[in-house]
Amino acid sequence: MVGFKATDMPPTATVKFLGAGTAACIADLITFPLDTAKVRLQIQGESQGPVCAAASAQYRGVLGTILTMVRTEGPRSLYNGLVAGLQRQMSFASVRIGLYDSVKQFYTKGSEHASIGSRLLAGSTTGALAVAVAQPTDVVKVRFQAQARAGGGQRYQSTVDAYKTIAREEGFRGLWKGTSPNIARNAIVNCAELVTYDLIKDTLLKANLMTDDLPCHFTSAFGAGFCTTVVASPVDVIKTRYMNSALGQYSSAGHCALTMLQKEGPRAFYKGFMPSFLRLGSWNVVMFVTYEQLKRALMAACTSREAPF
């Protein structure tokens, strides 16, 4: 057995809630530069046609983007928006991941055998609920990651300044900009990520191919990361463009998508695919492995505290 042993008592909803938020923050700390590179690649060329964009592309590939940012803006630029990112994960992942099992049990009325439909419904529910709670932190994170491009000035000086400036210049609704595409994205991401992880893990365990430990969690998380990237990339690009756009640039998320299609072609919807996969694949591995271990560690700690001397 690798890692902490599973306890006899299943993890409580509180343990899952806290464990999910903590595990997501750890995953963000490790993979944040890849997420920043993904955002830069996704917004590149949004004001140009496909030919002009290709000719004047500042960033080329994941490594090229990271090296360009370090050379022109310094290493700290890779962590632009980290504070908002961690705020987002503590509120966002705690809901969408930490409450997934509880919502799944609600839809299955406590049955041990959950259908794919129940899992998809649970993933969509917690994904949408998480966006409603954490959308302002996502807007600020994306704005920070996108700013400080060559030839452009700093839009915001700090995380608090970003919240205040957006609310002052764009109104309270500005902090919830892109909520619709983000709900769509996270319903898709949650279904692809959590349901795929759930199904792969269940299949491996039922077929006795692996035991419920680190190798099983790693394999399930990597598969979930790839499936999520393929399914969610188009919505993710639209979400990033729309949330980062200037006031009045796009009238809606649909207008943003149509403008991208007309100016840059269908391939624009998969801009930043490789950093998205590298980020989501590595993020899923770190998050799910940490999450599984944290649940066991927290339950072991609770059990040892309650055990009589």
UniProtKB/TrEMBL annotation:
<dbReference type="GO" id="GO:0005743">
    <property type="term" value="C:mitochondrial inner membrane"/>
</dbReference>
<dbReference type="GO" id="GO:0015183">
    <property type="term" value="F:L-aspartate transmembrane transporter activity"/>
</dbReference>
<dbReference type="GO" id="GO:1990542">
    <property type="term" value="P:mitochondrial transmembrane transport"/>
</dbReference>
<keyword id="KW-1133">Transmembrane helix</keyword>
<feature type="repeat" description="Solcar">
    <location>
        <begin position="212"/>
        <end position="297"/>
    </location>
</feature>
<dbReference type="GO" id="GO:0043524">
    <property type="term" value="P:negative regulation of neuron apoptotic process"/>
</dbReference>
<dbReference type="GO" id="GO:0051881">
    <property type="term" value="P:regulation of mitochondrial membrane potential"/>
</dbReference>
<dbReference type="GO" id="GO:0019003">
    <property type="term" value="F:GDP binding"/>
</dbReference>
<dbReference type="InterPro" id="IPR050391">
    <property type="entry name" value="Mito_Metabolite_Transporter"/>
</dbReference>
<dbReference type="GO" id="GO:0042803">
    <property type="term" value="F:protein homodimerization activity"/>
</dbReference>
<feature type="repeat" description="Solcar">
    <location>
        <begin position="11"/>
        <end position="106"/>
    </location>
</feature>
<dbReference type="GO" id="GO:0015108">
    <property type="term" value="F:chloride transmembrane transporter activity"/>
</dbReference>
<dbReference type="GO" id="GO:0006541">
    <property type="term" value="P:glutamine metabolic process"/>
</dbReference>
<dbReference type="InterPro" id="IPR002067">
    <property type="entry name" value="MCP"/>
</dbReference>
<dbReference type="GO" id="GO:0030225">
    <property type="term" value="P:macrophage differentiation"/>
</dbReference>
<dbReference type="GO" id="GO:0120162">
    <property type="term" value="P:positive regulation of cold-induced thermogenesis"/>
</dbReference>
<dbReference type="GO" id="GO:0015140">
    <property type="term" value="F:malate transmembrane transporter activity"/>
</dbReference>
<dbReference type="GO" id="GO:0110099">
    <property type="term" value="P:negative regulation of calcium import into the mitochondrion"/>
</dbReference>
<keyword id="KW-0999">Mitochondrion inner membrane</keyword>
<dbReference type="Pfam" id="PF00153">
    <property type="entry name" value="Mito_carr"/>
</dbReference>
<dbReference type="GO" id="GO:0000266">
    <property type="term" value="P:mitochondrial fission"/>
</dbReference>
<dbReference type="GO" id="GO:0001666">
    <property type="term" value="P:response to hypoxia"/>
</dbReference>
<dbReference type="GO" id="GO:0015078">
    <property type="term" value="F:proton transmembrane transporter activity"/>
</dbReference>
<dbReference type="GO" id="GO:0071333">
    <property type="term" value="P:cellular response to glucose stimulus"/>
</dbReference>
<dbReference type="InterPro" id="IPR023395">
    <property type="entry name" value="MCP_dom_sf"/>
</dbReference>
<dbReference type="GO" id="GO:0015131">
    <property type="term" value="F:oxaloacetate transmembrane transporter activity"/>
</dbReference>
<dbReference type="GO" id="GO:0015297">
    <property type="term" value="F:antiporter activity"/>
</dbReference>
<keyword id="KW-0472">Membrane</keyword>
<dbReference type="GO" id="GO:0008271">
    <property type="term" value="F:secondary active sulfate transmembrane transporter activity"/>
</dbReference>
<dbReference type="GO" id="GO:0006096">
    <property type="term" value="P:glycolytic process"/>
</dbReference>
<keyword id="KW-0812">Transmembrane</keyword>
<comment type="similarity">
    <text>Belongs to the mitochondrial carrier (TC 2.A.29) family.</text>
</comment>
<keyword id="KW-0496">Mitochondrion</keyword>
<dbReference type="InterPro" id="IPR018108">
    <property type="entry name" value="MCP_transmembrane"/>
</dbReference>
<protein>
    <submittedName>
        <fullName>Mitochondrial uncoupling protein 2</fullName>
    </submittedName>
</protein>
<feature type="repeat" description="Solcar">
    <location>
        <begin position="114"/>
        <end position="203"/>
    </location>
</feature>
<keyword id="KW-0677">Repeat</keyword>
<dbReference type="GO" id="GO:0140787">
    <property type="term" value="F:phosphate ion uniporter activity"/>
</dbReference>
<dbReference type="GO" id="GO:0015909">
    <property type="term" value="P:long-chain fatty acid transport"/>
</dbReference>
<dbReference type="GO" id="GO:0072593">
    <property type="term" value="P:reactive oxygen species metabolic process"/>
</dbReference>
<keyword id="KW-0813">Transport</keyword>
